[in-house]
Amino acid sequence: xxxxxxxxxxxxxxxxxxxxxxxxxxxxxxxxxxxxxxxxxxxxxxxxxxxxxxxxxxxxxxxxxxxxxxxxxxxxxxxxxxxxxxxxxxxxxxxxxxxxxxxxxxxxxxxxxxxxxxxxxxxxxxxxxxxxxxxxxxxxxxxxxxxxxxxxxxxxxxxxxxxxxxxxxxxxxxxxxxxxxxxxxxxxxxxxxxxxxxxxxxxxxxxxxxxxxxxxxxxxxxxxxxxxxxxxxxxxxx
Amino acid sequence: xxxxxxxxxxxxxxxxxxxxxxxxxxxxxxxxxxxxxxxxxxxxxxxxxxxxxxxxxxxxxxxxxxxxxxxxxxxxxxxxxxxxxxxxxxxxxxxxxxxxxxxxxxxxxxxxxxxxxxxxxxxxxxxxxxxxxxxxxxxxxxxxxxxxxxxxxxxxxxxxxxxxxxxxxxxxxxxxx
Lengths: 238, 177
Known about the structure:
The structure holds 2 protein chains of 2 kinds. Chain A is mostly beta strands. Chain A folds into 2 domains: 5-34; 43-236, Jelly Rolls (Sandwich). In chain A, 13% of the residues lie in helices and 46% in strands. Chain A is built from 3 helices and 15 strands. Chain A has helices at 5-13, 16-34, 160-163; strands at residues 43-54, 56-62, 74-83, 91-99, 106-113, 120-128, 134-141, 145-150, 153-159, 167-176, 191-199, 205-207, 212-215, 221-223, 232-236. In chain A, a hairpin with a 3-residue loop joins strand 7 (134-141) and strand 8 (145-150). Chain B is of the alpha+beta class. Helices cover 34% and strands 20% of the residues of chain B. Chain B has 4 helices and 5 strands, in the order αααβαββββ. The relative contact order of chain B is 0.15. At the A-B interface, helix 1, helix 2, strand 3, strand 4 and strand 5 of A face helix 1 and strand 5 of B. Chain A: The chain crosses the membrane at residues 21-44.
């Protein structure tokens, strides 16, 4: 015969509302135990402009300082072509980054398209970017191929149809993963973005200017970008 | 046999038992993954590993070529793995990596034949390619200004770290899945 007395005692000790609270707490705890680390919203600093059907973006970007990067964080600077479905992570970019635990900035190029059923994402790190250097970063395409260039040399390509994005915006930005990461540049040595360019639908390069100024954390990050400017600086205020 | 109030309590008790079991399972699962990477670090490279990696569709798609070296490696596989693990220690959620292995090969990178700021040509260069699985590598970019919130980008989970066999220098890293 099943004894119900212990359960009845438990009932006296735990009211239904308390039981529900305990169950909820345990569910939360169990999920935290197995969940992937939460990725914070990335923070951006610089300039952007909408250019429908663009086929490239380029800029000369300084590696001004070796930025402080927190555990799991990142600091980077790059030009980028963003696809029409920007919320689906459609982009191609080239620049420099320092991802934790790297000790110094390195070059990288990357592309992504999560609008595609193939869930495309590729990233490549390419050796060290010297502090104080200015480098020409360019992503662009012709009728068949997207390419990434650093100082005029192709460092990677991907097929236009394979990547499956149509350029809709050009971004020229610094980025961090969390507020604990320092944006490229410091107050006394700001990080330069210059010679902004975009490539039109006929594959011709033009000077580009800032359309929208972006700064996701004005209390700690800064820039002097203004609409119409073809160059600007970004920096960390701390 | 059971009163109505007792019947209400029993599901709650069962839920607690189930959730505690789940939490215990999760804890054991993470310990198992850590053990896996520790054991995998002793993996010895074999020619079949090279062939397997060389035939990976991602390697071909990104124009990487691997060949069997004629001479023996200067570094051991353990040294290469230790170098790679140290290089990314604490990053990419590497403490929860699920596997690691190393392949010694002559490496040609037709995508980036010459690295920026380097004189080294990545053509038939003796390297170790250390592949670490189960990472969480966040992408850069992903800015949405169209008014639609950016959808979460699943992190890349596999990282290939290319190490110069003669110098021990990390030359490049790449990830496509």
